[in-house]
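input
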Amino acid sequence: MTDIPKSHPRYASLVARERVAQGVKNGYTSSQGLIAQGRGECFDYLLGERTTASAERAIAAAAAMLLLAKRPALSVNGNVAALVAEEMVDLAAALGIPLEVNLFHRSEERVRKIADLLRARGAKKVLGEHPDASVPGLDHARALATRGGIYDADVVLIPLEDGDRCEALVAMGKKVIAIDLNPLSRTARKATVSIVDNILRAVPNMAVQVRKLSKLPRADLEKIVLEYDNEKVLRQAVQEIRDHLESSSGEKI
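output
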């Protein structure tokens, strides 16, 4: 990875770019992932590159929902592997569940490389190399899933995911947690809980919340989920973008 001084004002963004570029070189991130990373970075600028109040609310609800789930599942694609492999492994460890590799631009080699990367980062169990089921409504490799993992899950975390798969998982009756920097995307609109935040901040924060909330009684977790309103959170995220733009430009939008 190119040496980037921590004093650089764009340090976090530049490191993320390097990670995704390196992921392409290493063969577990698709070249299309570079475009997705740039798009997400644009929205992070609009948010002020910070975890907002709405994102904190969504992260808490997501953590509570995962703790309440009977069969939670965590999905990992190429960009997720490049950006937060170690953090996803830590989240899986906090929940005591496996990770599952699922790719839009799937090849068995890419799946194997991501699974190996996750295991190298400490993952105890990784699914996805031998899918044995298919998500209804999807006629693409991203429909492939594993029984005992995403296919049978009642709650699924899908970071940096496309809207079609999100919608198909919801149609199966699953509660879907998305991490998406665009509050207007179909993924964010279709998900049960939408975390409008940079994955670099969201995943470690979620692991912290899982460990913190795991000490609470089940009734308290249920109250957190019951009081969560995803539409309200998305509206707040859009307002937070407007507020940031107004404070940056000095003009009312």
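quick obs: Residues 243 and 249 are 10 Å apart (CA to CA).
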